[in-house]
Design brief:
This protein is an alpha+beta fold. It folds into 2 domains: 98 residues, 3-Layer(aba) Sandwich (GIY-YIG endonuclease), CATH 3.40.1440; 150 residues. It is built from 8 helices and 12 strands. The strands form 3 sheets. The chain has a 5-stranded mixed beta sheet. A hairpin with a 7-residue loop joins β2 and β3. 38% of the residues are buried. It comes from Richelia sinica FACHB-800. This is GIY-YIG domain-containing protein.
């Protein structure tokens, strides 16, 4: 997929008019007359992305800020197999060229949470595109592979501003095939018959929509939070994980707040 990424040839809006952005997938730049490209991102829905962007407070501090954008046209959408990967590739291309300063700046950390729902989703390494998470930025959109029957739970997490934890599962060979690059962490479990479970991300959601790239996926927006666990955490040897796995990691997207392991997840994610 090819798009014209020259900001001088892109349509633009003043930042305070961001609600008028098209509700379409594309690449966007945030900046002003002095620094036209201070931040670069991509989205499956440009308008929704900027309802509550994870760097919104920083964008608001840019004097006379504007958003340049380039949408993916309908004819291109009909020919694209993996929209997310194509947008991510274009985003990286633009970042490498413009070197925007805000993309290099760390995202603010999470605040503490009171009691409430704790949501989990397990992604199979071999089928869920796990390797794509390694290249994602903090605050980026995440795909949750779940059926439409779970959308009410996702909306509840959004409405109550409760954390979502994404857990990858697979055996050692699955991680090898998915280009997982920290093999040293997994060597001790290489010959285990049990699957390896890794906590890869956690975030407070603020929006959701159907992902047109995959039939059963939903794009969930990550909000004002650092979403990726660094380094990734192997859960197999965490206390209480075996019971938690049997009860909660076989039912798809679900609320696990009644499990004692929910407190461990909150601690691992920095919410407690």
């Amino acid at each position: 997929m090819q798009l014209n990424l020259n900001y001088k040839e892109m349509p633009f809006l003043p930042y305070h008019q961001r609600k008028d952005l098209p509700a379409k997938p594309g690449i966007y730049y945030v900046g002003n007359g002095d620094y036209p490209v201070s931040y670069i991102g991509f989205s499956h829905n440009l308008r929704n992305r900027h309802i509550n962007h994870h760097r919104q407070s920083e964008f608001a501090e840019i004097a006379n800020a504007v958003i340049h954008y380039r949408v993916v046209t309908e004819d291109l959408l009909d020919r694209i197999y993996n929209l997310t990967e194509n947008l991510r590739r274009l985003e990286k291309q633009a970042i490498n060229y413009y070197q925007p300063q805000l993309n290099k700046k760390a995202v603010n950390t999470q605040h503490k949470l009171s009691l409430g729902g704790v949501y989990v989703q397990t992604h199979q390494v071999a089928t869920a595109g796990y390797c794509s998470h390694f290249d994602a930025e903090d605050g980026e959109e995440l795909a949750i592979n779940t059926s439409a029957s779970k959308i009410s739970l996702i909306n509840k997490a959004i409405a109550n501003q409760r954390p979502i934890f994404l857990i990858a599962s697979g055996n050692y060979d699955d991680y090898v095939r998915a280009n997982y690059h920290n093999f040293s962490e997994l060597i001790m479990l290489k010959n285990e018959k049990e699957k390896i479970y890794i906590l890869i991300s956690c975030f407070i959601p603020y929006g959701c929509e159907v992902n047109l790239s995959y039939e059963l996926s939903h794009i969930v927006y990550g909000g004002n939070y650092k979403i990726f666990i660094e380094p990734y955490i192997i859960l197999n040897n965490q206390p209480g994980f075996k019971e938690f796995k049997r009860s909660y990691l076989t039912v798809g997207f679900t609320n696990c707040e009644k499990s004692p392991f929910a407190q461990i997840l909150l601690n691992l994610g920095g919410f407690q």
